[in-house]
Amino acid sequence: MRELPAGVPSVAVEEAAAPAMRAVAEPPVIPVEVVPPQAAACLARGSAAGDTSVAVHRWVDAAGITHYADRPPTGAARDHRVIAVSGLPPIKVEASGHDVNLPDGLQQQAVADALGVQRVLRDELGVAVPAGLALRIIFVADPATYGQLIGEPALAGSAGAYSTARQTIYIRMQPSDEANFVILRHELTHAIVHEAVGNLPLPLNEGLAEYFGRYRVVGMGGQVDFRPDRAALVAAAPAGDGSDALVDLLARDGPAFYAGDPASTREQRYRRAHALVALLMQRGEGRAVLADLLAAQRADPCVPIVLEELLEARYGGGLRRLAADWAAFMRKPPEGVSAH
Fold first, then answer.
1. Residue 286 CB coordination number (10 Å)
2. What would the pLDDT profile of 185-215 be if each residue is shown by its tens digit?
3. Burial class of residue 42 in the structure, from the number of CB atoms within 10 Å of its CB (0-12 exposed, 13-18 middle, 19+ buried)
4. Full-prediction pTM beyond 0.85?
5. What angle do CA 202, 310, 246 make, to 5 degrees?
6. How many whole angstroms separate alpha carbon 132 and alpha carbon 291?
7. What letter would DSSP give residue 228?
């Protein structure tokens, strides 16, 4: 999903965690999104290097809500303890519940997810996250309260929102842990792209967020499991050689990407954007093309790159070959996982 300008909520997804993950076949669909503002990379290139370790404070407030943060409590608190966490990525994460208790271990898992996604973006795609980036994550149980917090009650039915002005991700609690984590990783990807790359065209931006929303940290690396999404990807596969559908997808930036009635049209667009990034991430040649696109955007962060022209020039065989490979990928998605 996406970011919002100052004072306006956006809809997107990012990072977080919990002790036990339960797989879900279909991550929640965010029904409404808004046009992104200028990216931070457009407004201020780079950040000062920050400390790569932090002490995580855990406490319970007067209402019985458990908080995790990189700062100690300022008001009434009980059960305050400090958890030493070292070797953190440049991204610092502060997670709290507005009207809900967060599970023990969420802060640590949030850091692990941040590190994992950032590592793949850096090592595989050359995206350097500005040091010192600090993100807040606020979990909200009540939809009406969630709508008020993001500043847009009409979006109370959405699953997540990222405010670029506040560098805060709002997550409306979902029935399963893994659904919440998909939203968090999705938003984390948006935040990194926003800060480190620029105004990336939405088909690529949302495709990256959908792909990394499925990323899980495993041991010293991580993996993306395609199996839960196979049926949805097959259903979203374009007819024919895929050329017309790919041109349509790449041309949809701004509100046009989110337009569509019924909502299944928007959902199909997300699936197709996800498949495009997944296809490019499969092999070294595709990852090199994707890295080139991100580098081109970073070179001029304020003006979205023209995807059609760059893919025609850099993908072996041009757009026609890419369309055929993309359509074939969706008709027969991978049956396993991709390791990173």
1. 19
2. 998 898 888 888 998 999 999 999 999 999 9
3. middle
4. no
5. 55
6. 23
7. G
